[in-house]
Amino acid sequence: MTGKQIDKRVLRMIRAVNDMSQLELAKFLKVSPSLISKIRTGEKQFTQRTADRVVYAFNLDVKSIEHINAAIKALIYKENNG
Question: pTM for the whole thing?
């Protein structure tokens, strides 16, 4: 699993599905709230370590990440094309 497979859109989807605030997510992952904020705004990218924390904390595998990314792409397509 690489950090490139998990980006701010995936993080947003995970937060939404789990009804978590940025602060709750930061505490859950044992990272600083400012890191979550910087990832969300695109100021920082996921490191491998942070990506691994997300994968472990939410019991994700490559297939799960692929499904999340596909869902995001479908939502964006639908939003842009009615």
Answer: 0.78
